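Exercise (ungraded).
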Amino acid sequence: MSSNKPVFQGLAEEARICASCGSCRPVCPVYTELGWESAAPRGRITLARKIFVDCEEDALSGRYINRALQCTLCSNCREVCPTRIDTRELWLVLRQAIAARGKSPEAFAKLVENILQNKNISAASNASRLDWAEELDDPEIFTTSESAEVGYFVGCLASFYPMVAEIPLSLVRIMDKANIKVTTLGTDEWCCGFPLLGAGYPEETRALAEHNVKRIQEQGIKSLVTGCPSCYHTWKQHYPKVLGKPLEFRVFHATQFLAHLIEDGKLDWSDFEELDEVVTYHDPCDLGRNSGIYDAPREVLKNIPGVTLVEMEHNREHALCCGGGGNVQAVDPGLTAAIADRRIEEAVRTEASILVTACQQCVQVLTEATRRNKAKLRVMDINQLLWMGWE
Amino acid sequence: MLNELKEVFGARYTDSPFERRFYSRDVAYLPEFLISLLSNPLPDMVFRPLNAEEVSRIIPFATVENLAVTPRAGASTALGNSVPTRGGIVLDLNALKGVVRFSASEEKVRVLPGTTWAELDSYLRPRGYTVCAYPTSAFVATIGGWFSVGGYGIGSIEHGPLVNQVSSLEVVLPSGEIRRLTQESEPPLQWFAGTDGTLGVITELELKVRPVPEAMSHFLLVGKDPAGLIQAAQDCLAGMQGILHNLHYNSKAFNQALKSKGLVGSEPGNYHSLSVDLEGTRTQLDQGEAVLQSIVTRLGLRLLDSETAREEWENRFQSLRVMRVHPCLLGGELLLPLNSLNQYLEQLENLGRRAGVEMLTYGHIVSPDKVLVMSLYPADERRTFRYLCDTSLIMEIYRLGIKLDGVPYLVGFWNTPYVKDIYNSERLAELKRRKTLLDPKGIMNPSKAYRPPLLLRPALFTLGMKTLGMVRQIFTKEANRHEQQ
């Protein structure tokens, strides 16, 4: 058998290996919206080659940096690259090179400063991390960082953004329903560091990783559940790399955890009110292409009484991006909106009543797109959909 | 006029130096000074039209201003087919994308030229249909682009070149007129096939499509030398008509290169290989397999396991993965008589040995008697002069193929020195007549397809290449001397 695994041997080496064939171009959500060659992955790599192979530093212009950062890190380009370039890694290292030259945009500088200072992506103090839990019957359960075998890493978006606060509430209620004792890191949860990676500052994630891992171990957590695919990807892929050792506990995305609960018969469906909904599922890039999790969310959906799943034209490894990844929203919100609009168009074509996803950022971006387009479609996270039957 | 166009196109027009730069190249890597010596690849402006009407508004402006017009879509060739040679206007046709009309009963689809082959097939498959033939660059090559170049690829054995599958074409002529052409119209659509967009801009095509076959089966034959595999290919062509979809050859050197990076399994990695891909009913495929088994036994070849064969099929779009082994490759693609392939491979190996490079070859058999063969060799573009000297081997590969009744595949810009080898004098005269008739001012994609520019005229070009070749020999001798020491 041969290896189809993407490879990354360094920016200059991969820029040489790129055949400029352009297979990446039709699948790139940014190129699809902007239409210029400079916005296509092969265009970005062509200039990266000038800069990092031919050493033409002048080519690292403001226009080029703008193009380099107009990337959602969706990895659609990696899926089709015939030279097997791990383009996601390439884009991250390109951002590092831009940051190392002090040429990152102000939005990134602020983002980095904020995370390092507040330990989260919002402007709020980390002390308010558990505000979302106030809606629970017993809001105090997470205030003391109790020991438990299952830990829930809530993530910055779910913790601080009221628009998606229903997601963590639904997940912990489902866990309660399954009689799972769960704990969180409380106000000691720090940002996983994913936005720093996306901004080109991987070294700055070390302290965050060390802190979060230490807290998990102190609380005796054996299984960590994340609701956010980017947190999941960072915990699974980046932390072992930056810490130089494997994690001593298991990490699950919420969809995997829910699928296990269903498979093990841990959920009592007797009082579940059948939903009677046709839903379509949007694969988040960091959960699907970047982490390879396609089946778990579909297994969950197929098991929810009264739910019929219809697939969009682009699904699983070919799923379109929602536009919310790669910190693009911070540098070009209009581009994020345009990409999200295209995804909503495709979801509407399925005639589903609910667009389900498994990512807070996707929920946020796609909800705004449905409002903008006056689409007759509700957007919700898979946890919310499942909890609806017990609500 | 330009201001009016700018108003119409808005954000779909650019004259920004930053943006224009990306339209001055295709897949090929060539030193900028060399390109600048021979042409001006940097367009003055780029338009991204949405329909034929918009294209037809640009053409009169180009005519009045005497600006060259270069149509561009996937830009996935290496011969400069869609790269400007004298600045002017690039028409980026990628926004002309999508299916206009599909008729299952007529087995036809009307499609916009910027649609990629992968996109068209993704549209057709859920409807139970598929394209007849497609290029190995299907993810980027567009319908209009492939029609404008060779149009030979996977499926051509049964369905012929793309021009055979096209029943009508909408074009914007250099006069600005929008015309719908058929195989019988005046001019006929065939004039526009393989002429690099030098006669007009294609804005819509109607193609034959076919129902998705009931089943496919994949086989991978290996042998110690190519002769047995070529014979096997000829036997398959004779004995499997109607079910033979694809025949693809890889040289041992090509497979070994892939194997060195784990890009192909160890079994095919040690041999020359021939992929045989069949499609049809299950009964037909069973019969085909029996025929193939007898060919394999008779010729003393080996048939690898079905998983390896399937993997080779799935990698049919991935020949470029060899760049992970050699990040810089030069080479030439020839359309050769299948009967000459063995002789070509023998002589190519000798050429490689003399030149001190390993020739990596693969080929698609595209008709009962023709093979499209690509021969590549490693180079290093970072050493500019040495790289230039290495380009001299391309001419030697072409000369070798031409002696064996082959022709360089595609013309574009960089193969214009070979136009007299590619076309006989009557054919070339006829092509030039058509060009003069439709594009008297010569604004459409100039310096392509018919006549080389001064420095690429055969006498001068051959002299230049021979000189570079002699310098290259000195490099090779020097390298050999160092190795021996």
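Further reading is listed at the end of the chapter. For now, observe: Residues 98 and 104 of chain A are 6 Å apart (CA to CA). Chain A touches chain B through 31 residues (CB under 8 Å).
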